[in-house]
Amino acid sequence: QVQLVESGGGLVQAGGSLRLSCVASGRISSINTMGWYRQAPGKQRELVATVTSGGRTNYADSVKGRFTISRDNAKNTVYLQMDSLKPEDTADYYCNADVLPTGYFVMNYWGKGTLVTVSS
């Protein structure tokens, strides 16, 4: 069984920074693409950023230049460094990963989310 657990959410002023972390635990053989998604009140969940096992990254236009996604394969962890935060970044942030559990088949997993609130 695999679990994703996010941390690092909180309240920050506009222009400030925050760093989110997501750790995958369980019997894991490998992890392919990992990513961050967010959902603001009254809106659909949207892609924020992804990073492949080889380190290739992709960002939503709204966060490009402000957010940085990275991963530590040895720790099965993905990070999201958020700088120059804006009130419109306020949302629940979710970790997502394609994981190959040991002795099983590849599956997609979601974390429970962490709340980021940016005040003006």
Overall 3D shape: elongated
DSSP helical segment count: 0
By secondary-structure content and strand pairing, the structural class works out as mainly beta
Strand content: over 45%
Output mean pLDDT.
Answer: 97
What is the distance, rounded to the nearest whole angstrom, between the alpha carbons of the first and last residues? Answer: 41 Å
Helix % is under 10%
Q: Characterize the biggest β-sheet.
A: 7 strands, mixed
Let me know the number of strands: 11
How would you describe the overall organization of this protein?
This protein has 120 residues and is mainly β. The protein has no helices and 11 strands. The strands form 2 sheets. Strands 2, 4, 5, 6, 9, 10 and 11 form a 7-stranded mixed β-sheet that branches. A 4-stranded antiparallel β-sheet has the order 1-3-8-7, with no helix packed on it. Strand 7 (67-72) and strand 8 form a beta hairpin. It is elongated. The mean pLDDT is 97.
